[in-house]
Amino acid sequence: MDTANGLPVPRRHRAVLRLRRPGLWALAAAAVVLTALLHLAGRDELAVIAAVSAGLAAGFQVGVAGLHRLLFAGDGVVGVARAVIDEAVGTRLPVLLVILVVVGLPVLPLLLDPGERLEYRLQFFLTWALSAGGFLLALVTIFLGCGSVCGDIDTQRIHMALVKPLGRWQYLLGKWLGIVLLDGLLVALVGGGVFTVAEAVRRLPAADAADRRAVDEEVFTARSVTRPEHPRGDDFAADVAAAIAQLEKDDPRAFAADPAGARKRILAQRVLEWHTVPPDTVAGYLFTGLAEARGAAPVVQLRLKPFADAVAIDRAPVRFALWLNDRPFPSKNGTHEELTLAGGSFHTIEIPTSAIDSAGRLRLSIANRNLVPPGQARPATISFAPGKGLEILHRTGSFRGNFLRCLAVMWAKLAMLAAAAVAAASWLGFPTAVLTAVMVYVAAVARGFLADAIDIYTGADRAGAGLVDMVRLRATVLFERLDRLELWDACKTLTSFAAEGFLALVPSFGAHDGVTEVATGRLLTAAQAAASVAELGLAYPLVLLACGWALLCRRDLVNVSGF
Amino acid sequence: MVATVAGNEAVDIACVGVTKTFKDFWMRPRVRAVDGVTLEVRRGQVYGLLGPNGSGKSTTIKMLLGLLQPTAGRIAILGKRPTDVATKRHIGYLPEESYLYRFLTGRETLDYFGRLFRLDARARRERIDMLLDMVGLEAVQHRPVGEYSKGMQRRIGLAQSLINDPQLLILDEPTSGMDPVGSRQIKDLIATLARRGKTVLLCSHLLGDVEDLCDRVAIMYGGRIRSEGTCAELLTQEHATILETADMPDDVVAEVRAVLARHALAVKRIEHPRRSLESLFLEIVERAKAEGARTAGAAAGGPVAGFLAAGEAPPATATDGPAAVDAGLLDSLTRR
């Protein structure tokens, strides 16, 4: 070092060119060569897939460099975030994920049955690729979040950070930010790969023209869903009130135990009845708000799942006739044709948009034309599952936009998981923290199923009651069981209390599902995606990190020896 | 920032009755690592904390740094609570082990810690260059820290503790794992910082180093301070006198004995002094460097980095450190 006035003068920093993660670069180069060879051999569909591999491997390298550049400026929180990214890449966990995706993603389409309809193959690929990608990313997030914080505490690296002017909340926020940014990169890579491969699969030959149309109109699209409006007028309200009063009179004890649940059950029963078409009758269902659909495409899709009630045969045929705004459909040569569909399955019927009136309304009339089944006295009733059992889908957006919003929702879920992992690790050791974060993930993914399982376990049905009602219901059941000295059942109730309390704190990932929407060409609206990002990507992490901070502030960061 | 003054000198570290009891999972007290420690380190002092393993030195330091919460007692560091984040801008800390990210290079490690101190990019780059040169790691700055030897990791640890030009430097076993050249550099560094009015809390097993460097020393055992004072107070043996002269012929020795005998004194020991092994070692290394011998490890290191050595002025006028207030910290802590 030179000196001037007795003081050292710093030399210019000489950057050294280092090839980081050479294995990934080699993989990218190999994929590029393979792409060129496949293109020269005229196998462009495979060349695209090889190019995806090259793009993923190179994209990861460039992405990590980009994150470094993004975090070039900034101090405490950003410094920690940058170190987390370096640490994560250093653990090779994200690299392993990228290699898995690079190798696995192109293989997945090859596993699809070429004899299957292209529509189903695409739906299968999109569902599995995005679900598996989300699952792997969730695991990577949990291990990185817990490993980063627990590793710092175990090795006492955290001492070096917290003796600097860095608050504990800044430390945790930096950890979370680093993981979330890396997740953003990985989601973009996985999403980009899935999208490109899906586009390549789309170019494969379809089974027939209908299959090709289904691919274009039911998968590579974004369709809004319209369901029939239930006429909840005064008559309906009076009917429901009368039914409730009757129940209260017939079984006052059961009603008093869970009045909200009883009310919801009666309401659900009435809605189901409305979705039912008895034999030799015609039921009308009014769909509104379809004005936009009239000019958007020549057809809309009527999606329905009919059941033939009281018929003990799986997929028993359901026979009915349709009218669209009082015009028979379909009619061939002036003859109104009846339709026969397998019961218990979803079916799609294309409806011309010309059938929709200028106000955007479509009245669907369904006549039950079932025949008398063998051994029965009268034809079966036709019913549709309330909700998804009867709906009209019409294009309102693009597949690409839908796909991007799906990735945003996926990223938001990972942000929530990252916060859960960081918060757990701020208090627990690595194995326990991972277990806790995995529990949160499982509970979030399977919240509905777990709630039903708890109901079955305890023998109580809360029928979608709210939190307060649920607590009151469980307390009533608990005291009843204690009063009858049914101690084992009382223990089960207490256990369910704890489990339901935990579930109440965990968001439902099922309520923020973008994968099904993308695979079935249903619109995931920007408002839905924004709500998911706000709830899962911001609100939950904020609360979880605050909890983690409170715990970390009370924790002695030294493992004492000598016990 | 508020600092405190005891007499005419600011107090950078003050502990009153500090106790730390570690508890087990069931919150039962298991180990009392520190027991009623009271000490005071004034601005510009080099303060030595001595004691055998398990005597509570490191636990005391970690409480000073806010990494542990005391079970009882009060601590003020630069006039603030140990958990005060802003105060840490003025503190440098070298732990007993180098807790570093193995995948970061030496330069990236210093850059990371420079960011935590909110140093701008230019200041970071300049200081990193100086510190790497100072600790002799410039040639290996782009190698991951995980590939460093223990001594090299200690050197990068030392560099990170200085990147903010701290007013208060806390060194826990700083020469542990260091070769004699590095050890000597640390001693030179501490002396330089002390001349510049910085406060140094030194925790070491090497009693000779502590004796050479420290203004005051506290000796701990069993979590308590057993003895505390200046080196002169603790070490001077008033009952004996040592005279050092050039080589003395035998007849002169005999005359001296005779003179002492007239005053009823006897010579207990006469011997030639020996140079220290450290000075011999350093001389050999310097000679090898002068001959241009190569080494694959850390270089011998450069002078103390400019930003650390510059302006060796009394701390009372320093503007980058804490300001003084007119109240005795120990008194104020006791009153609370």
Could you please describe the fold and organization of this structure?
The complex is a heterodimer of chains A (563) and B (336). With 563 residues, chain A is of the alpha+beta class. Chain A folds into three domains: 23-220 and 399-446 and 512-553, no CATH class; 234-397, Jelly Rolls (Sandwich); 453-505, no CATH class. In chain A, 60% of the residues lie in helices and 13% in strands. Chain A is built from 19 helices and 16 strands. In chain A, strands 5, 8, 9, 12 and 14 form a five-stranded antiparallel β-sheet that branches. In chain A, helix 3 crosses helix 7, helix 4 (93-110) runs parallel beside helix 7 and helix 5 packs antiparallel against helix 14. The longest helix of chain A is centred in the N-terminal third of the chain and has 37 residues, at 118-154. The radius of gyration of chain A is 29 Å and the shape is flat. Chain B is of the alpha/beta class and 336 residues long. Among the domains of chain B are: 1-105 and 168-236, P-loop containing nucleotide triphosphate hydrolases (Rossmann fold); 243-293, no CATH class. In chain B, 33% of the residues lie in helices and 21% in strands. Chain B has eleven helices and ten strands. Chain B has helices spanning 57-64, 106-116, 121-134, 150-162, 180-195, 207-213, 231-235, 250-262, 277-290, 306-309, 329-335, and strands at residues 4-6, 9-23, 29-42, 46-50, 72-77, 91-94, 168-172, 199-203, 216-221, 224-230. Chain B has a six-stranded mixed β-sheet, with helices on both faces. In chain B, strand 2 and strand 3 (29-42) form a beta hairpin. Mean pLDDT of chain B is 79; it is low at 1-8 and 313-336. The interface between A and B is large, with 43 and 53 residues.
